[in-house]
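Box 3.1 — From sequence to structure: Succinyl-CoA--3-ketoacid-CoA transferase
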Amino acid sequence: MQKIYPDAASALEGLLFDGMQICAGGFGLSGIPERLIDAIRDAGTKDLTIASNNAGIDGEGLGKLLRTRQVKKMISSYVGENKEFERQYLAGELEVEFCPQGTLAERCRAGGAGIPGFYTKTGVGTQVAEGKEHKDFDGQTYILERGIYADLCIIKGWKADKAGNLIFRKTARNFNQPMATAGKICVAEVEEIVETGSLDPDCIHLPGVYVKRLICGAPYDKKIEFRTVRERTAA
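Predicted structure (token representation):
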């Protein structure tokens, strides 16, 4: 099976449709599938429901799709750095489902494992629990969270071989790995593609069986989400 495509647009060909649900990997601006996001923007696919830890920042990452009004709903855990996200939400233009960070990761992992729902203590007694089933186990209250299984997963890895076996780098592993399994098809972009068999099997984070389409998106410009610097003191 040929998994490697020349660019993001060709890798997404035939997969996009209005009203679809997408799982998008990344943590802040680390490990975001930016080439695939650009291709979705250029395709003009609209009314999207996107599950992602955050929505990027203004003009970067998923923030690009918010700018073009292609997103109908976000399922996220952190949105503090995106002013356009805030504006659309407060204006009633964007539906938002806030989800605790660990719960979001587990919802994606569960969906990929064929688990439709699970109980967790996280969020009990807060707005997160409103409208959800409550159940007691051993004297403790838990809420039911549904697994997420999307139409498409888009992820970013560090290195892959031609069979799609993939390695993530540091923080980028947080959400890319569970989201890779949480959909009907996974499209990945990486910084480097090497020959099959050249990666140490013990270092592979995501087996190639999960990756259906693959592109090399290099070179990348490493961006910083929020820069904090210290003023230089006089000698």
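Summary of the box: The chain has one domain: 8-216.
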